[in-house]
Amino acid sequence: MTAARASSIKASRRHRLFYRMPHYADPYIHWSLIILAFYGLLMITSASMGLAIGQPGYLAFVIAKQAVFLIAGYFSMTYLANRFSLNFLKSQDFPKLAVGMVFALLACLAFPEVNGAKAWIRVPVSSLDISIQPSEFTKTLVPLVIAAYCGDVSRHYEKGRDLWGRPFLFVMLFAFIIFILQSDFGSMAVVLSIAIVCFLIPQNPAMRKFQRVLGVLTLVGIAGIIYLLTPAGIQLVEMLPIADYQKNRFISAFNPFADQYDTGYQLINGLISFASGGWRGLGFGNSVRKYTSFPAANTDFILAIVVEEMGMIGFLLIFIPYLIILCRLFHYALHMKSEKGRIILIGTAMYLLIHCLFNIGGVTAMIPLTGVPLLMISSGGSSTLAFMVSIGLAQAVISQYRKGLIQ
């Protein structure tokens, strides 16, 4: 083979990295994500119609912005699926990535708050409102941090904190900035939930006491949230030193009809949308609720519009791809010996599962609203891009496992 021919083949392979998944990647995960991407774009278009009234160009902007993030997410996903290696977690560059995330989270404090939270970096593009939410990418980074410092460690440690101390410090620093400084409880809850599960995976004996403590604290936390949704718990919530809108979320989850024209208005309208949709829905584009003053119709509460228009069948078009992705991620994680790989796969699965539980639980008044989007379905460039990056990392691990490069 001539040098020119070899160079041409090499360049061709580099070119393919930008739009093709590796041959050994899981096709079920890939196509489930593609279905979610197209279905999400379709439903965002429909859910945004009511918001577009009186705002020329708004609908086109929302569609274009989501499409741009989907394209960027797809290229990022395929690139990482082809290029990411677990060896990167051992490099000297990885800690710089975690430190860089801390500065990105702090940078949000320089921008105006939105809905009570300072969680976005505003990007000035002419008169357009484009923003990036770094906390979404923290959900992708947390499994990597824990995998880097705690996964596949055979060394004996006299003190357990010498093993788990550094990743725990990073996680708590992320959580402190997101919750205390940015006032974003939902993202903080997701980050901590992912971290807790990931910390439970490593088998090094130095982790055992720490894992027991995490398990106990998790059970106490779940019991505490359940208690706060009881009549006695609601009285306690009203005395807590938290913002009024945070108190109202607990009160509305306990009884949306306590203040049906104010704090419970959003939940009640969401429940009406669910009831209106039935099994088959009113038809694509035929939602009545989106043309009223229904808040967050194309973001946090988009599931209500999906069910109203497409019925429970439309909900299954979300649920089934979600279930396929979760099952495939857990399948590989359970068969894999590499703790680093297992942490990344289970961390990605928990990212999807926790978002799903928090969003569906919130819009159905089963738990307090957290402002967590429905991944790949809600309008939101940062959440879409971050989750596709997570899938790219998971596909890289799966591909290398199926090739036999990792066990």
Characterize this entry briefly.
Helix content is 65%, strand content 2%. It is mainly α and 407 residues long.
Q: Can you characterise this structure?
A:
With 407 residues, this protein is mainly α. The protein has 14 helices and two strands; from the N terminus they run ααααββαααααααααα. Strands 1-2 form a two-stranded antiparallel sheet. β1 and β2 form a beta hairpin. 42% of the residues are buried. The N terminus is likely disordered.
* Count of alpha and pi helical runs: 14
SS content category: mainly alpha
Sheet with the most strands, sense and barrel status: 2 strands, antiparallel
Task: Detail the poorly predicted runs.
Answer: 3-16
Overall number of strands? 2
Shape: globular
**Strand residue content:** under 5%
Radius of gyration: 22 Å
Distance between the termini: 35 Å
Q: Strand order across the biggest sheet?
A: 1-2
Helicity, as a percent range: 55-70%
H-E string = HHHHEEHHHHHHHHHH
Mean pLDDT over all positions: 88
Write the topology of this structure.
Blueprint: H1 3-16, H2 27-47, H3 58-83, H4 94-107, E1 121-125, E2 128-132, H5 134-150, H6 161-181, H7 185-199, H8 208-228, H9 231-239, H10 244-254, H11 265-277, H12 302-335, H13 339-363, H14 381-403
Antiparallel strand pairs: 1-2
Helix pairs in contact: 2-3, 2-12, 3-14, 4-5, 4-6, 5-6, 5-7, 5-13, 5-14, 6-7, 7-13, 9-10, 11-12, 12-13, 13-14
What keyword list fits this structure?
407 residues; mainly alpha; two-stranded antiparallel sheet; 65% helix; 2% strand; globular
